[in-house]
Amino acid sequence: MRGLDALAKALLTQSDRIYTVPGFPITRLGELTNAEMVINEKTALEYALGDSLSGLRAAVIVKNVGVNACADPLLQATAQGLIRGVVIVAGDDPEAEGSQTSQDSRYYGELAEIPVIEPDIRTCYSGVEAAFAASERFSRVAMLRITLHILHTDVQGKPVMRKDRKGRLSKRTLTMNGRMTAAEELYREMFSWADTSPLNRWNGEPAGTGAESGSTRIVTVHPLPGRASTLREIHEFGRSFVRDHRCLKPPTPKKRPQSMEDRGFYRTFCAACPFRVLMNTIRDTGLQLICDAGCSVLGMTPLYEVGIASYGMGASVAVASRSTKVALIGDYALLHSGLNALIDVYEKRLPFLCIVMKNECTAMTGKQSTYDPVPYLAWANPVICSWDDEETMRKELVVTDLPRTLIVTGSCPEGCSHETVEY
């Protein structure tokens, strides 16, 4: 059996949902898995994160340059955590045989501090299962790096039984500094995981990765097993990632993760913010939602605590459409990188409510002016109401069988800043 067929079978067994954006060399893999076509790779990963929050495993099959589009939610997920496994299947094309550029996606392992597995002829089945298991164990996205060589090589091995585990979201009581500290502690544990992984096989020099030859086989390419530091000859397809990372060490332990109580305060909306009316109304309805970057992220903190998670700029739309069905996003974040996801959600007619806070400025970064989103949302037939129209807000804050958009307008008060509340 070819690696292509084995990987497709393994992905269908180990995941509940599969998304793709076609491209060399993974187009056929997407077809064999009946993967759902998505408007772009960032939205695909955000859909998968939403599935994770709903208790479903999800895979995202993309080409190497597509991984770049996933960068923001990929790194955000490391700090924010997840529930069920999410795996990016990265189709690398190191010699640019069918791509516009050459790239090695393994470097995202170091950047995002995620587990990266590069299966060889014996680990196509077990490698997929191990990627989902690692995602759930370390509460972050995992990556499966594949190349054209392994896809068209005859492979060995047998299907592996699925065994779902459970990750965890970062604690709401932690500051962002605390969330990063907690995530880094899990990253430290990944080095022991690599050291003891049965995917790797040690039989002396030379070592090989993927479809490259070698007596020793290194499959967990990030983090690398400690034994890799003694290797001299390493065969790998792409850049010299394994060779250059043989001596990578776990991060130095830090103090316990900082909580808001440790810091002594939390932040919330400005005292005179008109959107406090919206937030109080959302809280009173009992809706749970996905928050975006910007002021909407304050929906996760007291006094409101209506947000389940936040995975970065523009991410709330796609994440919410596969989880809570309700997204809270600012006008700038929507135009920045949420609009493509909203188009995809409307095209797929998903049950979903997008709440847009329209203040025509970037309130968290100095109140720089931004564009009015209304002209660019005419196709969505949004309901528009003022911040003080509580009756309309209560009527519209519902999820129906079709996607809907509610735009609430208000102006940031001059001379105000986010309120600091002491514990």
Quickly give the structural class.
alpha/beta
Please describe the biggest sheet, giving its number of strands, its sense, and whether it closes into a barrel. Answer: 7 strands, mixed
The overall strand count is 20
Number of domains: 2
Tell me the span between the first and last alpha carbons: 61 Å
Task: Report the helical percentage.
Answer: 25-40%
**Poorly predicted regions:** none
Tell me the overall shape. Answer: globular
What's the CATH architecture name of the largest domain?
A: 3-Layer(aba) Sandwich
| Fourth-level CATH superfamily of the largest domain | Thiamin diphosphate (ThDP)-binding fold, Pyr/PP domains
Strand order of the largest sheet: 2-1-3-4-6-5-9
Instruction: Write down the overall mean pLDDT.
Output: 96
CATH class of the largest domain: Alpha Beta
Oligomer: single chain
Rounded to an integer in angstroms, the radius of gyration calculated over CA atoms is: 23 Å
Number of helices: 15
Approximately how much beta-strand content do the residues carry?
15-25%
- CATH fold descriptor of the largest domain: Rossmann fold
